C-alpha cells in the first residue's frame, strides 16, 4: 500500500469514526452523570462535609474502585514510561510512549486496566471518536504492591518483537463518567454527583429536602435492563450491567418494589461486598418472604460468565435457567424454549412489534 493511499484510508476511517461516535451508544446505557443545563458541580469534598458517613461507606464499594488514580497502586518496580502500539488500525500500527507521571495517564479501571488519553500527535484512532485507550494492566503482588503488564501483547508492527498493545476504552460512560464529562470538580470515576446530579443548588438551599435526586433513574443510567434481542427465532440476553428479566418478575408488578433502592444502596457494601441493605441476599429476601430461599435458583448466574460480567437474574424465579434452552458453550444467554419466549414477549411488549 502506497503512502498516499494509506493516508487516504486513514482520513476516511477517521471521518467514519466521528460519525459513529455521534450515533452509537453502548446498548441500554446513557452517560452516567446526571444531566443539567448549568451543570453546577461542587465535588465530593463539598458533599462529604455534611455526608461524611455516606462518603466513607461509599469508598468501600465497588463503585468507588470503578476508576482510581494510578498513584493508589504502588508498583513492585518503578516504571517511568511505557511504549504501546494502537491495535485498532492494523495497517497503521502507530506507537506512542506514555510518561506515567504525565497528565495523559487518567487512572485505573476496576483495579486492572490503566487508562490514558492519546494526544493528537500519537495518531491513535479509537471507536466512538474516543481519545481514551487501555494501555496496560495492573496485577496484585505481595505486600500490597502491583505489577504493570501489557493489557494485550503481540507483534503488532511485524518487526519480530513482542509489543504492548493499546485498544479503545469503551467503558467510559459508566466506569469513569467524570472523565467523560471533563468537569474539574468531578472525580474521574463515579462520584456523588454522578448519581445525584449537580449539587450546587442543594448546597445553596436553606431547605435541603427535595433539592437533590436519589432514585432508580440514576441507577438505570448504567444498570438499565435492556430487552432481549430476537435473533433467528430465539431471544438473546447479553447485557452485563442490568437486572436481567426484572420486568418478568412479580416485583415489577408491585409499585412498592420497583425502585432499586428498596433492596440496594450505593452508600455502603455489605459483608459480602454487595450493595444490598442486608448482609446477604437471603437475609434481604427473608425480610418479606418466610419461605427458605435458594439464591442459585431464583437469581441464577450465567454459567459461562467466569469473570462475573453478568449480574444475577432478576426475574426472581419467573424465568428459570433450566427452562431457557440455553447453549452453555456460548457466553450470551440464549432462549430457545417457545414457552419462555412467549412469556418474555408478554413482559416486553416491544418484542411483539419487532420482526
Automatic annotation (TrEMBL):
Q: Which InterPro entries match?
A: Cyt_c-552/4, Multihaem_cyt_sf, Multiheme_Cytochr_ET, Paired_CXXCH_1, Tetrahaem_cytochrome
The Cytochrome c-552/4 domain covers: 46-71
The record's section on Pfam families has: Cytochrom_c3_2 (PF14537), Cytochrome_C554 (PF13435)
What GO terms fall under cellular component here?
A: cell envelope
- Which residue ranges does the record assign to the Tetrahaem cytochrome domain? 188-290
Output the Gene Ontology terms for molecular function.
metal ion binding
Q: Which UniProt keywords apply?
A: Electron transport, Heme, Iron, Metal-binding, Signal, Transport
Respond yes or no to whether keyword Heme is given for this record: yes
Asked whether the UniProt record includes Repressor among its keywords, one would answer no
Q: Where in the cell is it found?
A: Cell envelope
The name on file for this protein is Uncharacterized protein
